[in-house]
Specification:
It is built from 11 helices and 6 strands. It has helices at 2-17, 29-41, 46-49, 67-73, 77-91, 155-164, 181-188, 213-221, 225-233, 235-246, 261-282, and strands spanning 99-108, 119-123, 126-138, 142-150, 170-173, 192-195. Strands 1, 2, 3, 4, 5 and 6 form a 6-stranded mixed β-sheet that branches.
Length: 287
């Protein structure tokens, strides 16, 4: 399985990189990104992937960048564009569905961590320190847009950024934390019907303040079977988060060497790329 995933990653990166190389650079962008993805695939730090003994024999003929070169080049614009192109390529291989879901997953770190970007916030079992992965998921395309933010960022706040990046029309389903008028308006302006259960359960009315017409429509939909089915389908994003984290080379708890927001985002993006390849190769019916 690992070899199959790596073969697909290697082919996509080589094709999209087009042998692009910065001036006076020894290694092209594909060399840098593939070395990083090899480390992520095996849940190892970057310096581990810079050692030839940790590669299959048929790859050892290549010269490998040293850790300092990796640290510097991974932050360059060309590498960032390349890894995003790889992710987008995998997403666009499947057509979008009419219904998508939005949710967040905590990525905790140790409470004694010196990570200056990590923060305390609400996690699954009370307060925790770390980050959160906020994502919009599609049953066909996987995680179409996402963002990593410190744990203290509220889901509805980051949802503004995610909705702004969605281009396809349809339905977007979230839980009660996303029941905000501004999110309904923002989604409605992009021809997306946002739908979420009321934050206050068993409320007799919605009050007298101004409400978004899209929120009123969502509340009306929830009175019918179609609306209830949309809300129930939101459990699918929990399944996808579970697959992402339970996959053998998936997004397990953040290792000790993945700290600060830039490194966390890079690690998560690489893991999502691996997850998308796994979905399309092992579970083709999911698309």
């Amino acid at each position: 399985m690992e070899n199959e995933l790596w073969t697909k990653v290697y082919q996509i990166v080589q094709r999209l990189s087009n042998n692009k190389r910065p001036k006076r650079a020894t290694y092209n962008d594909a060399d840098i990104l593939l070395t990083y993805l090899w480390a992520v695939l095996h849940d190892r730090p970057v310096y581990w992937a810079c050692q030839k003994t940790n590669w299959p024999i048929h790859y050892r003929r290549r010269n490998l960048p040293n850790p300092s070169t990796m640290t510097r080049r991974l932050r360059t614009e060309s590498i960032q564009q390349l890894i995003q192109q790889v992710e987008k390529e995998l997403i666009n291989q499947c057509p979008p569905r009419i219904c998508r879901w939005i949710d967040a997953k905590p990525l905790p770190v140790s409470r004694s961590s010196k990570d200056k970007d990590a923060a305390y916030g609400h996690a699954e079992y009370g307060m925790s320190k770390g980050y959160k992965l906020h994502a919009v998921a599609d049953e066909s395309q996987g995680f179409v847009v996402w963002a990593v933010r410190p744990m203290n960022y509220h889901e509805a706040t980051v949802a503004n950024e995610l909705i702004a990046k969605i281009d396809d029309e349809g339905y977007l389903v979230g839980d009660g934390a996303y029941d905000k008028n501004r999110l309904y308006d923002m989604a409605g302006q992009k021809s997306i019907q946002f739908i979420a259960p009321q934050r206050i359960k068993n409320a007799k009315s919605i009050g007298h303040r101004r409400h978004s017409p899209y929120r009123l429509r969502a509340l009306s939909l929830q009175k019918h079977c179609f609306g209830q089915e949309l809300l129930q389908s939101r459990n699918n994003i929990e399944t996808m988060f579970g697959q992402l984290t339970n996959l053998g080379c998936g997004l397990s708890p953040l290792p000790n060497w993945v700290r600060r927001q830039f490194r966390v985002e890079m690690w998560v993006r690489a893991k999502i790329i691996i997850y998308h390849i796994w979905r399309q190769k092992v579970r083709p019916n999911a698309a």
